[in-house]
Specification:
Length: about 325
């Protein structure tokens, strides 16, 4: 590990000031991703700004729905009665991730910002445009079994690996961030992460120094809370990142679908919300034939690489399975 400064912030203003004063500074929350990357020499911050003492841990009802503090842990969030009752999809997604010990350390803000698990990003002897802009992409023509099938660019085929964010896309979450000048803004979760394009070194649309303070969820529409399911398919039954995951939520009127949310995880540089699948579902009867049409629409534009064509069929089947479970047909 390289030497770095350590600063413990007493409040949000001093945290954002300490961060924005240095281009290579990083916030330190649970440290479960950042410290691993520092040990691997992938991330080389010159200053860590410890934000763990900031009062950003509350989970509370608001007029608009629910506000979940950026420093609430994944465990606290998944177990919170208001989350379990009103957003069971979020609880399912969080507990599908990592292990109990990691979820006790992992914060919601850090979870949103976790970096890709692309092997070429971690291997500093290989080229990676995300790790080092302009160095090339080892995965494009390399071993790309876990890489993207949607939205990738010649510069980067990495995926965003997180479970929680995939559910947040289906729940129309917004991320509240605070800038160094004290101003706050809300970012729709679908605009939070980026596709790689020519700048894969940027994972998201946060400006340097911006601090995530909370994740805000609207009151769940209609019956979304009753008809939702998070499906995660992985190499091992637990403690593994998804090959493909699906967050599905349906608002149903009897057997008819009023509104639908279909989001695929681990298939792109950001969770992939499928407007095409949702359009197929709205107004239709909830049954397997409808779900298969929606799954075909969701994967129609997939562009697999040499070693990950399996994700296209796996994605289709996972969409059908998640929708069957959400509608309680399976
Ligand atoms: C072995 C292992 C298995 C895992 N399996 C899974 C899995 O199956 N599914 C899954 O989803 N995740 C998985 N994870 C990832 C884990 O969930 C993340 O490491 C964790 O959520 C990161 O949270 P943290 O608080 O530790 O973040 P940190 O490591 O402290 O920070 C991560 C990044 O976020 C930034 N940051 C943190 N908080 C803020 C904030 N409030 N505002 C602005 N920037 C901030 C930091 O500067 C850093 O860049 C796994 C991790 C490990 C080590």
């Amino acid at each position: 590990m390289r030497p770095f400064e350590y600063v413990r912030a007493a409040d949000a203003a001093s945290a954002t000031a300490a961060l924005s004063a240095m281009p290579q500074a990083r916030y330190l929350a649970g440290g479960s991703n950042l410290l691993d990357l520092m040990k691997e020499d992938v991330e080389r911050p010159t200053r860590l700004v410890d934000i763990t003492r900031l009062p950003l841990r509350e989970i509370q009802r608001t007029r608009a729905g629910l506000s979940i503090g950026a420093l609430a842990t994944n465990t606290e969030t998944a177990n919170h009665p208001l989350v379990r009752e009103n957003y069971p999809l979020l609880t399912q997604a969080i507990v599908a991730g990592a292990s109990g010990q990691l979820r006790n350390m992992a914060t919601n803000g850090g979870n949103l910002l976790q970096r890709t698990r692309c092997n070429y990003f971690y291997d500093t002897s290989m080229p990676c445009n995300k790790r080092e802009a302009g160095s090339g992409c080892g995965a494009r023509e390399g071993l790309n079994r876990i890489s993207a099938i949607m939205g990738w660019s010649e510069a980067c085929v990495a995926t965003y690996p997180g479970d929680m964010a995939t559910a947040l896309y289906a729940l129309d979450a917004r991320v509240r961030v605070r800038a160094p000048d004290g101003r706050e803004r809300l970012i729709a979760i679908t605009d939070f992460h980026r596709l790689p394009g020519d700048t894969p070194e940027r994972d998201n649309n946060l400006a340097h120094g911006e601090l995530i303070v909370a994740i805000e969820l609207p009151v769940p529409a209609g019956e979304f809370a009753r008809h939702s399911h998070y499906l995660k398919v992985r190499d091992r039954a637990s403690y593994a990142f998804a090959m493909v995951s699906v967050a599905a939520a349906l608002d149903m009127d009897g057997s008819r679908i009023r509104q639908a949310r279909v989001v695929l995880g681990s298939v792109a540089h950001k969770p992939w919300r499928s407007a095409e699948a949702e359009a197929v579902l709205v107004g239709q009867r909830a049954d397997e034939a409808t779900f298969k049409r929606a799954a075909d629409a969701a994967l129609r534009d997939a562009r697999p690489l040499a070693h990950n064509a399996y994700k296209v069929e796996l994605g289709r089947r996972s969409v059908v399975r998640a929708l069957m479970r959400a509608s309680r047909l399976a």
